[in-house]
Specification:
Elements (H helix, E strand, L loop, with lengths): L1 H19 L3 H10 L5 H32 L8 H28 L46
Helix pairs in contact: 1-3, 1-4, 3-4
Length: 152
């Protein structure tokens, strides 16, 4: 299980280093020193930190599950072991979600990152006027209406 987590973190680390053309440790120091200098780098480093925390929680949960499974098992898995398995599944889901966020942040061709108009309503033209009229419709006046008898 440990090798798979190294692969996920290794691939993402490599992508970050390729994107910013510096080792991750240097990027972290640069962001810490001047977070406003590059908002994109700051966001990526923030999410990578969240991903790292989640990966550590996943590793801990996996270790606990492996230890619990290493004891002589009864015929059926008991509730504490099943709870550990659920914790591992939840940690994997969170880790994968955060990895997806980091991958999105690193992808310059991701939806919404290629200029205005990529997503519906994102173009400046779409923001010029409200989508719906904001003034009430004009009601017909009493003089313009015809009585039912006048049409004869």
């Amino acid at each position: 299980m440990f090798e798979a987590s190294e692969d996920v973190m290794g691939v993402i680390t490599e992508r970050i280093e390729d994107r910013f053309q510096m080792p991750l440790a240097d990027l972290r120091r640069a962001v810490q020193a001047a977070p406003q200098a590059n908002p994109e780098a700051t966001t990526v480093v923030h999410w990578y930190g969240l991903l790292t925390e989640t990966q550590q929680a996943l590793d801990t949960a996996e270790d606990a599950l492996v230890e619990a499974l290493g004891t002589p098992p009864p015929d059926v898995l008991d509730d504490p072991v099943m709870e550990l398995a659920h914790q591992v599944n939840a940690a994997v889901a969170v880790r994968d979600g955060r990895a997806m966020v980091v991958n999105y942040l690193l992808d310059p061709n991701a939806p919404g990152k290629r200029g205005p108009g990529v997503w519906r309503g994102a173009s400046p033209a779409a923001r010029r006027a409200p989508a719906l009229p904001t003034s009430p419709p004009a009601l017909p006046s009493a003089r313009n209406t015809t009585s039912p008898g006048a049409a004869r």
